[in-house]
Amino acid sequence: MREIKVLDLAGKQVSSLTDAIGKQITLEAIDLYSNQLSSLPETIWQLTNLQKLNLAENHFSSLSEGIGNLINLRVLDLGHNELTFLPEAIGTLSNLAFLYLSNNRLTSIPSTFRNLKNLIYLNITDNRLTSLPEWIGNLSRLIELRLYNNQFSSLPDSIGHLVDLKELHLMDNNLNLLPALIGGLRNLKKLVLQSNRLTSLPESIGSLGNLTDLDLRNNKLASLPESLGNLKKLRHLDLRANQLVSLPASLGELANLEKLDLRWNKSISQHKWIERLEERGCIVYT
């Protein structure tokens, strides 16, 4: 093999790699997406110049702790495999910025991941997680956090420490409440809570001053806090399939609201402010 920087074998039906791959020390990116791999040669962990490693959509049930040698890794994609646990050594990859763990069989995340201080994107969707560790608040540079299709019933207070977070995706879990400290997410723009078991929202949700999209459909909300009227940048509010019979008048103060979806609730009382929203061009579905 000649010296190369990128090795792209995506979708090539590869079932094994030669030990010789460890000699390609110039490699900076390896793409093994959508193959038939269930193991890797230990020599691959000698490629310390690697910045991107894509192992998604294979048949890995485990990975070597040797992955911790890839000290320059910025992107690691382990999605769509059969992983039941993760190497603790991933937590030593201090340059990691993007980590994809979706569609595995994970029930926990190693505590060493608290050290991934440069992580800006974390995707752990479609796993079997029942709780989110308190140390999630240590990942202070996170911009996007995707946790949908798990089994969370609550969130740790520390989630409110993620002050750079712009997107939080939590749909299809078992959440029945949100921590009051969620109001600390001052840069959050998108909050997706579809298909949980929420019966109420904390007043602090009104502190999410940069929020533009709030999806609450298919929950068990019977009322909403007046503080929602403080979300002056809100453009889309989805309240479909809850148990609402009335709405706070403060929603009429949402000057940037473009769409309000109220379908499949109980008989919601008609409000003059809803008419005013429609008159100024907001789409309202009832």
Explain the overall architecture.
With 286 residues, the protein is mainly β. It has one domain (6-285): Leucine-rich repeat, LRR (right-handed beta-alpha superhelix) (Alpha-Beta Horseshoe), CATH 3.80.10. The chain has one helix and 13 strands; from the N terminus they run ββββββββββββαβ. It has a 13-stranded parallel sheet, with helices on one face. It is elongated. It starts with 5 loop residues before the first strand and ends with a strand.
List keywords for this structure.
13 strands, 286 residues, Leucine-rich repeat, LRR (right-handed beta-alpha superhelix), 13-stranded parallel β-sheet, mainly beta, 1 helix, 3% helix, single chain
Sheet with most strands: strand arrangement = 1-2-3-4-5-6-7-8-9-10-11-12-13
Q: Work out the helicity level.
A: under 10%
Estimate nothing, just give the exact number of structural domains: 1
Radius of gyration (CA) equals: 22 Å
Mean pLDDT: 97
Pairing-aware structural class of the strands and helices? mainly beta
Query: What oligomeric assembly is this protein in?
Result: single chain
Low-confidence stretches: none
Helix count equals 1
What would the CATH topology be?
Leucine-rich repeat, LRR (right-handed beta-alpha superhelix)
Summarize this structure briefly.
By secondary structure, the chain is mainly beta. It is 3% helix and 14% strand.
Q: What's the SSE blueprint?
A:
Blueprint: E1 6-8, E2 29-31, E3 52-54, E4 75-77, E5 98-100, E6 121-123, E7 144-146, E8 167-169, E9 190-192, E10 213-215, E11 236-238, E12 259-261, H1 272-279, E13 283-285
Parallel strand pairs: 1-2, 2-3, 3-4, 4-5, 5-6, 6-7, 7-8, 8-9, 9-10, 10-11, 11-12, 12-13
